[in-house]
Amino acid sequence: MPLGETLISESEIRARIRELARELQAALPPGPLHCVVVLKSAIFFAVDLVRSLGREATLGFISAASYGEGTESGGQVRLGLEAAGRVEGRHVFLIDDILDTGHTLLAAREALRGLRPASLRTCVLLDKPSRRRVKIEADHAGFTIEDVFVVGYGLDCAEAYRTLPDIRAYRPDGPDTEEKPG
Ligand code: 5GP
Ligand code: MG
Cys-Cys crosslink for 161: which of 41, 74, 143, 151, Cβ 3.0 to 4.6 Å? Predict the structure, then answer.
């Protein structure tokens, strides 16, 4: 069983999103927002966060694929911006699932910047600072985690495990940590 221990439970995620929403209310410029979500893993987080913000928001999406080896993204990120919506002159809020090497968020942020938003802030659910390869920090982050591959709450491994309510370690060779009833 490749699923390892629970790192962040559903209730911890919910509580942190409420806190983040309060933090963001103070940090984001007033008025309507244009939220741009990086497909697909960030969708679960973005939906919960944007609803908690309780303010007028439009949604756009961008796709990101990186050429790289194994589980690590390479420096070349291919972005799909066709569903990003109108960015120019708007207060844009970029949402991604996890900041790992940093290539993806950097590429997405710079591409949006090129579309001349009125302002741009970034938010990720998870941050793995020990894995960073390029100099970038998110303006807001939900949780800082160790260097471990995680799944659940939108995050996948080859499209599996997205619908798990908690964030769990994924350990293909690890011991069976499934809780047994009784
Ligand atoms: P970066 O470009 O920062 O290296 O990678 C960011 C992307 O890699 C994330 O948006 C995510 O899709 C994927 N990624 C990085 N670490 C993990 C992880 O621990 N679990 C999963 N499921 N995806 C990850
Ligand atoms: Mg992603």
Answer: 151
